[in-house]
Structure to design on (405 residues):
């Protein structure tokens, strides 16, 4: 391998990074190119922490002969098995010592003092090098503050000095390309977590101009937890967040599984929309989400009762109508949401649930749009005045709907 190969491989990495090739494919292509150019390389791994509500980071692997999962996500390294694995790794050694590189010629008597060395020595590897490329504060996002990588070989003589020199030149380029792709992934994750999947896609597609909205017809969902204020007043403070998270989880997953999009979390309330090609498609999806929620809620409440923790119910308002969907706010703070009279009406419909002791109510517009086959499970509860709405509205419910809690 000569230095002309370095320029060729660096140019390939740069191009692939700009093209948004996945991190795993970047590592695989890099390792294959190095081997083709003559480097004594048989195994590699790279990892980088990320910004994600569940995963701490992502790791990517390549092996010249073995076929295994090329990428995986790892959980917290601050406790339990994750902490033990982290502390026994070469990466932990580099992080705590401030060194940029550590090498173990394991086939020539060097200690196998890091967690991976014994297994790869048994597989015939002779030489191992791990590297850390730290980011400056301006280039750090959350825990994404370093690019770690390691490489090993089965060559009888281990890595040559030229191999190591070339790795030192190329690995920072690889790290930069992987970081570029990872940042795009983080941006999508943050947008989806805080805006919802559909709104996130629109924002990531460039629809961020203030006042840029579209008029859409959608089924609207507004739900709240029954007696949340009372439960929070009578529960230990450390119980409140887990309770809210667990009930939010069942509501949100039910909506997503039925094809809806959660637009807002308002305390214990959830605003969501269901978009379909036809009104009956949107309403059918909202009802499917309601059924899924009841199933999930029964499982959650049973588990909480076993643990003698407080339980509650979820009441839901359903409506369908035209809304404006898009960016609303100031020049420096926008919200991608829906506005319009239909949004106000669905929240008012939900608020009636408590006074009539029912866990789901729907407007006459929603009832009229439901597929004919599903209307036989509905019951009209009469005409009700909704605050801020001119005329009293006929409301409907499911025959099985009763608040529990």
């Amino acid at each position: 391998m000569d230095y002309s190969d370095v320029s060729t491989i660096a140019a390939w990495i740069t191009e692939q990074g700009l093209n948004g090739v996945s991190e795993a494919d970047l590592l695989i292509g890099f390792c294959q190119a190095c081997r083709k150019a003559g480097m004594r390389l048989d195994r590699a791994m790279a990892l980088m922490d990320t910004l994600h509500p569940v995963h701490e980071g992502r790791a990517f692997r390549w092996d010249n002969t073995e076929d295994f999962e090329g990428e995986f996500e790892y959980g917290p390294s601050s406790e339990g098995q994750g902490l033990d694995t982290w502390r026994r790794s070469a990466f932990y050694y580099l992080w705590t010592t401030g060194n940029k590189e550590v090498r173990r010629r394991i086939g020539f008597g060097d200690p196998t003092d890091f967690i991976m060395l014994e297994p790869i020595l048994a597989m015939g590897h002779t030489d191992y090098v791990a590297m850390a490329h730290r980011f400056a504060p301006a280039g750090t996002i959350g825990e994404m503050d370093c690019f770690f990588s390691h490489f090993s070989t089965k060559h009888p003589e281990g890595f040559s000095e030229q191999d190591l020199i070339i790795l030192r030149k190329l690995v920072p380029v690889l790290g930069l390309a992987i970081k570029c792709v990872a940042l795009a992934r983080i941006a999508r994750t943050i947008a989806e977590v805080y805006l919802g999947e559909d709104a996130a896609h629109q924002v990531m597609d460039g629809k961020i101009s203030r006042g840029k909205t579209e008029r859409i017809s959608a089924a609207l969902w507004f739900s709240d937890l029954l007696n949340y204020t009372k439960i929070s007043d009578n529960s230990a403070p450390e119980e409140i967040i887990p309770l809210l998270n667990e009930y939010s989880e069942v509501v949100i997953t039910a909506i997503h599984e039925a094809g809806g999009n959660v637009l807002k979390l308002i305390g214990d309330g959830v605003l969501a929309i269901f978009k379909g090609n036809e009104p009956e498609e949107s309403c059918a999806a909202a009802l499917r989400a309601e059924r899924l929620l009841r199933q999930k809620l029964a499982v959650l409440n049973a588990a909480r009762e076993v643990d003698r923790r407080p339980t509650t119910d979820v009441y839901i308002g359903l409506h369908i109508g035209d809304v404006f969907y898009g960016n609303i706010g100031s020049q420096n703070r926008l919200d991608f949401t829906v506005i319009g009279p239909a949004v106000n009406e669905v929240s008012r419909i939900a608020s009636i649930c408590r006074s009539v002791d029912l866990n789901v109510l729907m407007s006459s517009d929603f009832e009229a749009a439901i597929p004919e086959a599903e209307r036989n499970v509905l019951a009209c509860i009469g005409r009700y005045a909704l605050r801020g709405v001119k005329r009293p509205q006929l409301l409907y419910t499911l025959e099985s709907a009763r608040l529990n809690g």
Remarks:
- DSSP finds twelve helices and 14 strands in the chain.
